[in-house]
Specification:
Layout: H1 2-8, H2 11-32, H3 34-52, E1 58-66, H4 68-74, H5 81-93, E2 98-101, H6 113-122, E3 126-131, E4 139-140, E5 157-158, E6 161-163, E7 174-176, E8 180-181, E9 187-191, E10 193-196, E11 199-202, H7 204-213, E12 219-222, E13 231-234, E14 243-245, E15 250-252, E16 262-266, H8 267-271, E17 284-289, E18 297-298, E19 306-307, H9 309-321, H10 331-351, H11 361-383, H12 390-425, H13 428-435, E20 444-458, H14 460-466, H15 469-489, E21 493-498, E22 501-507, H16 525-543, E23 559-576, E24 579-585, H17 587-602, E25 606-609, H18 610-616, E26 622-627, E27 636-640
Length: about 650
Amino acid sequence: MTQLWTRLFSKHGVIAVSLGVAALISAAFLFFAAELLNQLELRSSDQIWRIGAVHADERRLIVVDIDERSLQQIGPWPWPHDTQARLIQKLAAAGAREQIIDIVFTDAQPHEASFVAAVQQQQPVLAQVFTLDQGGQPSVGALAGALDWATCPAPFAQSNGYLGNFAALKADHAGHITPRVGRDGVVRHQPAIICHQGKSYPALGLAALMRGAGERNLTLQRGSQWFGPAWSLRSPNQGMDAVPLEANGDLRVSWHLHPDSFVSVSASDVLADRLPADLLKGAWVLVGASAFGLNDTIATPFEGAAAGLQVHAQIITALLDGRTPFTPLAAPALQAAAALLGLASLVALSLLGRRFPVYLLPLVATGWALLFWSVHAMLLLQQAIWVGWSAPALFILSTGSIMGVLQHAKSRLDRDRLYTHLSSYLPAPVAAALALQPPSSAIKASTKQVSVLFADIRNFSAYCEARPPAEAAAVLHAFFSTAAPIVEAHGGVIEAFQGDAIFAVWNGDPAPDACSPDGKPAPPPAYHAQRALDAAVALLSAVHGLLPDPAPAGLEPLALGIGVETGPAMAGSFGQASRRTHMVMGRTVTIASRLVVMTAELAHPILVGEGLAGQVGAVGLESMGFFMLDGMRAPHHVYAYPLVPEDAPGQSH
């Protein structure tokens, strides 16, 4: 289990796990929440249209609006047919090249002859509506403008009802105005062709384009080029550019032009001859209604309630410019390539290890997601290509987030493992500090009041010379393994293992307002001195029976000598940044080490310096007199700790 855990949290293991989990998350979203991602793309693209919409003076298509002012001046809707006939004739007289009427005339009136005559004479493109809901729907009026197709191809929607113009009009050109309303109410698509009873009827914009190009029919062609659309509509006589379609046969609405770009005039001004001269000359005219109550209101990327004619104005101008947006056949491959590119960067940064902060991986993934969105926006605005960005962004964000979390967890595990290793070679507080500090060549040390313990196995050098190395190593290992828990149990820290000796320290000189780690006031130096002395007694007792006894033939018996002292010492790190050591040094340390040497001479296993004796009280200690310790310039008072029989290790002292 430990080996498996180690493999999972290796560099390559973290990358593999991140990829696997991110792939599962992405697959789950694509399978169970595909519509959520689709809505995210659509709504973000609405923002793209709002930001990148062009403010131009569009004069090729003029909007004639049946607005509130028109209803006030002409009368309530529906207007009499002779009024509608006058509007058509006025537009023709003003020089309009094409008339596209976003109105369905369902009711015949007693005096419609003038209207029928105007339609027959000017040949405007009339509107009709289909129902795409399931179930039987009523059909009103007559349909017109069907394409000369033998059957209705598969990609196009089937209708079960319609709303057409009254039969007497006999319109030659008609197009449907059926929108494809999104779940949020915004119109972003329109079926290019709708099928009804085996016949195919084009959208209003397509019908207007055919009328302007003099085309009577269209051909459907399946896409075969990587960067081409799934389907396209073409004119047999090459009179109009190919029209790209989505995979389901829809036209994707281009909101490239800001609504303010279109010149809109009131229908009442047309009827009253109040238009500027030559405004309509040679232009296409789109007649529609924006007046409240005429039930022609839709939501667009620009506003929540707009006139439905805006959709047709955008579709027609996009068809004229050849910039109808479409999704290329290569879109999935392009998204996969983008995801792989972002993934490669995350993997490369992850493999850099310490040279790259792992917590930045989610930020890098977010940057890639924003880049995908930016490329999608650029292609949509400049090339009218809809590539999509949510799927690769989801994968990269998932991978980067998971990889960042796992890499952070790995770094924590590595740091804990490093700390564990360091604390087995250095004092635990020193290891903890070093694990969080950068390398430095400066001296990092301070003077503290400490209690020091040296414990040395006497005669061990001769023992090592006479016995096999493995046996000597076993004795030393047993001694170190016994000493370390005793020192730690008494609040000390093993500073170093020095050959066959241990060096332990108790730090006992806190500032007056300092506190211990548990928040309680730190203990005084006397407390640490007593604990060091107690540790010496416990260590001597624990070693009894651990050292070989009796000694091998010809060898002096192994025995433990311990020296303890309390006083000031300097503790810290020394050396270059590339090779440093931690040391506790000073007079106190020197005295303790010299006391160990004297234990054999004075026949006492535990000798105490005058500094520690002053802290714990000389009462109970046996004065051995003043001695000139090796390397010291002044005599030092030495005390022995008298052992009672139960403390004695079974050796003479």
